[in-house]
Design a protein that fits this description.
- This protein is mainly α.
- Helix content is about 55%, strand content about 10%.
- The chain has one domain.
């Protein structure tokens, strides 16, 4: 679960609550807003790649 620290639409508290409710890690990206993938594409790609690696490494 990803969210931006400066996101007024989906607030950091909402991001954390949804992550908690889904039983997944929630990451709030410092200094980023709702458009965090466009604001920091390299950082977003790194987080996405790490997630894909975890999914691919998980037992079937």
């Amino acid at each position: 679960m990803l969210g931006g620290e400066l996101d007024a639409l989906v607030t950091p508290d909402m991001t954390r609550a949804l992550g908690r409710d889904l039983g997944v890690d929630a990451h709030v990206l410092a200094g980023r807003g709702h458009g965090f993938p466009q604001e920091d594409p390299q950082g977003f790609r790194a987080l996405l790649a790490a997630f894909v690696d975890r999914v691919n490494a998980a037992p079937a």
